[in-house]
Amino acid sequence: MPPHPMGETAGRRDVLLMGASVALAAAGCDGPDEHGHPLHARPRGVAAEDASYATVLDLEGLGRGVLVRTRAGHAVKLEGNPQHPASLGATDIFAEAAVLSLHDPERSRRIRRDGAPLPPAELDAALAEARAALRTAGGAGLRLLTGPIASPTLARLIGEVLAAYPGARWHQHDPLADDAALAGAMAAFGRPVAVLPDLGRARAVLCLGADPLGPGPAQLRQARDWSSGRREGRAAGRMPRLFVAEASPSLTGARADRRIPLHPAEAEGFARAVAAALGVPGLARQGAHPEAAGIAAALREAGPAGLVLAGRGQPPAVHALALAMNQALGAPGTSLRLTVPPLAQPEPMAASLAGLTSAMAANEVTHLLVLGANPLAEAPAALGFAAALRRVGFTLHAGQWVDETAHACRWHVPLPHPLEAWGDARASCGTPAIRQPVTLPLVEAARGEAELLSALLGPPQTARAAVANTWRTAWGEADFESRWDAALEAGIAGEPAPAIAPALRPDWDRPGEAAPATLTAVFAPDIGPEAQNAWLQEMPRPLTGLAWGNAALFDPLTAATLGLAPGDEAELTLEGRQVLAACWPVPGQAPGCVTLPLGGGRRAAGAVGTGRGFDANRLRPADGAWAAPGLAVRATGRRAALVATQAHHRPDEAGAVPRLAPGEALAPIQPGASLHPDWAYEGRAWAMSIDVDACIGCNACAIACQAENNVPVVGPEELARGRGMHWLRIDRYDAPPAAPAAASFQPVPCMHCEKAPCEPVCPVNATVHDSEGLNVMVHARCVGTRTCSNNCPYKVRRFNWDDHRRALDTPRRNPEVALRPRGVMEKCTYCSHRITAARTQAGLEGRALRDGEVETACQRACPTQAITFGDLNAPGSAVAALRRDGRSYALLGHLETRPRTTYLAQTVPGETA
Fold it and tell me: How far is CA 725 from each of CA 287, 470, 543, 712, 832, rounded to the nearest angstrom?
């Protein structure tokens, strides 16, 4: 990793990492023509400029509903929309970090031609000239390149452009696209289908490389369903079973009851063995695996509540086998729903980009519009896209940043951020939603995709008009206005896609070619297009603990055989292409596989994202394959600069997560002797309970805490020194291979100990208890001795080594949380400002606080509802009930700190691990 480009001064580093100085200049700009509609009426006691709006954000082209809290016209915090079926009130790391991307000072702000800024009139003239030339040629030579699209409006406009220009063609590119899933569905059913699992109703699940709990547009819904199913199964005394066979560890694999490391060459044989044991008819070839019979027995016992999922990177034959196994189990209608795919995808995306590249190389393309895509950073280098692009006369790139593709195109147009723009999107389940501008625009020259597409048809129309026309056609004119307002207020514009019931084709099984079991490169998603987001860069990856970069992931045995230690640099060679990468051994990695995260090594991702890690696309095959055999690895003898925030934990270490069989209980938490004086806490007693059995380690809580509490980013150098400022960390504990659970995740905020060891050692009484049990920091008193941190057994107190206030004091920051000066301790406050706001509102309404009315930021973000917060002294409160649960335990409880944050142990089937 090269030296941090922001290391000149602390001030410059902070401004570029966290700053949003451009928003300061834009604060006086005119707002959007029409503001969005508040989801809820503004309560008394809240400033008139505060509001909450419903909108939708895309991930891999699919929407998740969010609520945006604004202050004086600027977005401050995002939370999930409870009414949207893809979010159910939760958020993922990408949604939480969107507000930082919105205020990124390095966003593109000017229209450019050959790198030089130009007024919008110049672009309009160029588009008019291109439109005239293309109409004369019937559209021959026109190509559109987009990312994945589930927007009804964009799909409609692209269709109108193709109709107006018969010789034009639409291409799509998504580096995370799973074309094999499309091919598998075509083999099984003769048509594309979307597979929507219901993990809440499934009693036995087999994931063939699938990661339903991992990052993705359906993660929030699937994680909620999974945790609900576990709670119901625990209450019934029969936990659902989760089996995962995969090459590289995933969040789903970490929570599996049985995880099988599987080389990609063995995936189809394993799937065939399970299918044969289930008695699936029509198998053209058998398979064998020692685990197959036991897994098939569990699936057969579950019947229609059994479920088989094939994941990204599996060959088409495995996808077809998964669909056939689900049909044999009777899963459709119970644990599975099949629908029409929500993405408008005319052809496989890898073939689409390859076709565009070939056409450009053959001089068949005269005009290329790249809308919201970055193929020069995300396409395989073997494809030769960059060289072919230079042969096109008119190239226009529209994006939020001047990225790699923007530098290669003649024209660049800044796109508005989704929080500034009108649009629409379908969720993974097909539910449509309208996107509305929820913040003042920060880029005056921005043009949306809808405006650029309409410019090809004639005088451009506004994005709002384009979206309204789409839904006016769908709803009719009679009740359009009322339905429009209702859709904006609710954040949804229709129902999910109806289920379909395709029949399995008689010749559905089409075996694939046997892959050689050599050292294989396995490509995997990472933060990718969000490389410029400092929150995501500094977030430790849940399974490796790495931040600010990536590494090639090896299984420990393979790494040792190659003479590679953690952090060693290795030269990776595949089909003559080479890249240098750091080595990082990971428990659970399948032997003979090297996982290469995509999205690193960016060349034009701003000061935050440029040069972080290595670019795996330099090795990826031209067809976008997710696995490629024949990888060669050579140790260079050098060390790579990695930022690792956590070593691997063993289950026997202090603080390990207890694992209980269903119905088993721990001894109740009983207060013991203490040298600290007792305090009755006769009023409220705030407390938190975290269900480790529900935690999937997704980090949404940590990013939500950072966004809510103005937690600064410190950069890679300071993070490597152990000076990270996160108020909430996620500890991971790896289990032995024979254990019934692969790993456990344990969120660790401040424990708010009643007998807090940090308090008596503070020489200035800066860390104290209030009457409700909160361990609070009086920053005006703190002189930075750090004795409190030394005396904290949980290591949750952070010393602020630098003054980040200038970077944080922007329209993005939460004004309810004060900025902290340099030289003081910081830590979790249980979002005390939210407690104060709820108490004030209850007082204005003349009532008592309700249980659950106060939600901490981490609690609200959690997709599995693993975090419960409330008053221990309130009769019938949820947190008090969980404290009495047989799974409740205190972290390091033997120290008698009496923490207000307690945990619920992990439940595993069978014997206790």
Answer: 51, 46, 20, 7, 18
